[in-house]
Amino acid sequence: MINKHIRTDLAIEARELYSEDRNIEIPGVKVEQEKGNDYTVTRVDIFNEEGKQIMGKEKGVYITIESKLISFDDDDSREIIIDAIHKELSKLLGDFKNKKALVIGLGNWNITSDALGPKVVANTLVTRHLFEAYNKEYDDDVNEVAALSPGVMGITGIETSETVKALVEMIKPDVVIAVDALASRKLERVNNTVQISTAGISPGAGIGNVRKALDQEYLNVPVIAIGVPTVVDAATLTSDVIDYTIDNLIQESKKGKDFYKMLKSLKEEEKYSLIKDILEPYGQNVVVTPKDIDEIIDNLSYVISTAINKSLHPGIN
Q: Which residues form the propeptide (predicted)?
């Protein structure tokens, strides 16, 4: 069973936690990986209840795109990642013509590291009002798309799930695409990873504030979740720093290597629990994000919104 106290929204990391020091695959979970020159795609398919219980995640397909180019803000890097997201998203959408989509930007627009969803919505090409105004039923170039940033309960006083469900019942989309900021257990994956999932999403899960999930069971419509880890919690960051320090000490020290290697051999769960106990007096909800998060979120929102626009509207190139 995965340690639920280690904070991560990524299925690929949940699998790593289970597989640590084990040479077995997880029952009820299928994993495929494709490595390219610019990025790596990992597909984790949780297909039964046993896999769900072990992983601590809902059944569905979790597609992870990992690349250093994701956080780069040059045109060439953006185009590579946009195409990668567009390719995977289009596979999940299938033949998306003459259909309706609702894009939901989850998160708090007042907190930069949590503003990914609202910023993606701001860049989404919405067309529902045009279909309504001109009484259109079909268009060769665009589909009927609506978008909303429902805010967070602390701002609106309304559960996000209630807002989205009411909207779904009103406009009856064929698919809901929910975008949110996530949390990772590895600093190296922050802002360098995109996860696309058919399992839905729980708003606020990344910072430990789990609300009711937006998924097909609740909304009665397929839900595709897209997220980027923008934060790690303090215990995770400290664990990474300790690992880097121990690696350096092992290389530089002629004596005491056995002691350092013993520290290095500690499992992730053991290190995390130890550090979490030490940090307890400082509060459990401390999360860390890079100092240039403003520019990163602007770049990520452009990349993800462009990939969504290309996937929903066949006339966009």
A: 1-9
